[in-house]
Amino acid sequence: METTAGISPHAQGATSAPTATDDEQGRAGEARIGHWVAGRARPDAERYGPVHDPATGAVTGRVALASAADVDAAVAAARDAFPAWRATSVSRRVAILFAFHQLLVDHRDEIAAVVSAEHGKVLSDAAGEVARALECVEFACGIGQLLKGGYTEQASSGVDVHEVKQALGVVACITPFNFPAMVPLWMIPNAIACGNTVVLKPSERDPSASLVVARLLQEAGVPDGVVNVVQGDRVAVERLLEHPDVEAVSFVGSTPVARHVYETGTRHGKRVQALGGAKNHMVVLPDADVDVAADAAVSAAYGSAGERCMAVSVLVAVGAVADSLVEAIRERVARLVVGPGSDPASQMGPLITAEHRDRVAARVGTAAEEGATLVVDGREAPDGAGDLGEGFFLHPTLVDHVRPEHTVYREEIFGPVLSVVRAESYDEAVGLVNDNPYGNGAAIFTRDGGAARAFEVDARAGMIGVNVPIPVPVGYYSFGGWKSSLFGDLHVYGPESVQFYTRTKVVTTRWPDPSTAGVDLGFPRTR
Ligand code: NAD
Predict the structure, then answer these.
(1) 3-class secondary structure for 169-212?
(2) Is 174 in the pocket of ligand 1 (CB under 6 A)?
(3) Which helix (H) or strand (E) holds 468?
(4) How far is the CA of 256 from the centre of ligand 1 (A)?
(5) Beta bridge partners of 65
(6) Which pLDDT tens digit goes with each residue over 183-214?
(7) How far is CA 473 from the centre of its chain?
(8) Domain with residues 280-466, CATH architecture
(9) For the chain, where do the domains classified as CATH 3.40.605.10 start and end?
(10) Which residue range or ranges hold the Aldehyde dehydrogenase domain (predicted)?
(11) What is the pTM of this model?
């Protein structure tokens, strides 16, 4: 099959031969990015949306936007595949996951290129996304240990009790643009290892990585229909949320949509985990090493252009450290290289769309109007920066003297903007973390073990870093925030997702001696 520049041959739910001529249907040379249902690419649709190369602003493809009927077809494929997949032995499922792990390793660079071409992040960062996804597959390869239930011999006289964990059925996975390979792989490995079948609805902004994943799963031996992909927008999401054959929904995205997904999905009787947005604070105490803290703040604030749910967006400088820390960050920001993700010299790429870039830039303007100090204003290219053409770029921005009432503090900006809030004391700093409506990650930088331990105990957030700015848990723990960063009870990947993707059944067994049997209308007792 033909390929389009930067798009993997594995992403061949994408074909490069559009038949229609009008703008919405796509022009010659633009990839057609379709669905993947029952093991086959389905490129045709009634509606399409544009996919851009954010580094140039050019439209590189048209993604199918599923109708309710398209979603129904994918759910039907997953429902039909469920009985046989659930009956497939645990050891066979694990063998397939091992093969998939190897394929991911073999295709790591190719996946990174697909991610970078549509998301815009630099290639090394995209490769890091694949590396973290591999951890989740590794965990799922140990599912045999995790699916063991408990057993109690002689719970009552001659009565034994055991517990089994059974698959749910069809699981819908709805994912955001910022990790188009990793977030689907936070969900799919454990969901299918537990015996479920999946309908993935990736972001319509960078849809091709999902098709690479689907093809590699097929190549690894996952039977057709066990993992399906429907491309689309809110039309597809709404249908998944109300579909009677969808048992559970794993969602990752912004807080307003996460709240809606949780409320709508649970109203339709589904089990839902919906991870939302973030406003991650990094607290720097006066005793911290300024260079270490500045390196960490710059890496965590501007990596992936700040489009990470675990990006540091607020730096809380406690006491006298503030001036030297802001200066150390300013120096480092001035040296950052912004450019296309495909250029090995680039450290930071563009934002996902022109609209999002403009929205982030507007918040920078509002910050200045509301009284904060623009130490580095990324709306202007620094001296010596090359011409970045029509790409969706915004240079790194550093805002000092931000206060909690400022718009740039209250909203999730999701761009290369670091806000510095100055606090007098540890108590004031931890108060900021705890009063914030989001509670994904929070970090503290200090050389004082007692202060670090107090922060670990006090901070109201799901993931804490001690001298670690982006404390994303390794794949054998679970990932999730508190407050408006998570709707639902269980975190994604790791042990909590095994709980999410299974139902518990408790079996009570007795093999009675007929000679002692008799009618007894009393409520069964254990003693
Ligand atoms: P988004 O909420 O716009 O989209 C997420 C998914 O929901 C996409 O598949 C999208 O098609 C769908 N969607 C969008 N609007 C919808 C609507 N009105 N109704 C139904 N479905 C809709 O998020 P995004 O812009 O793709 O991703 C960025 C956001 O995701 C940020 O807020 C970021 O913090 C968050 N995020 C959170 C985590 C986490 O683990 N907590 C991880 C990654 C990203």
Answers:
(1) CEEEEECCCCCCCHHHHHHHHHHHHCCCEEEEECCCCCCHHHHH
(2) yes
(3) none
(4) 9
(5) 47
(6) 999 999 999 999 999 999 999 999 999 999 99
(7) 13
(8) 3-Layer(aba) Sandwich (3.40)
(9) 31-276+485-506
(10) 48-507
(11) 0.95
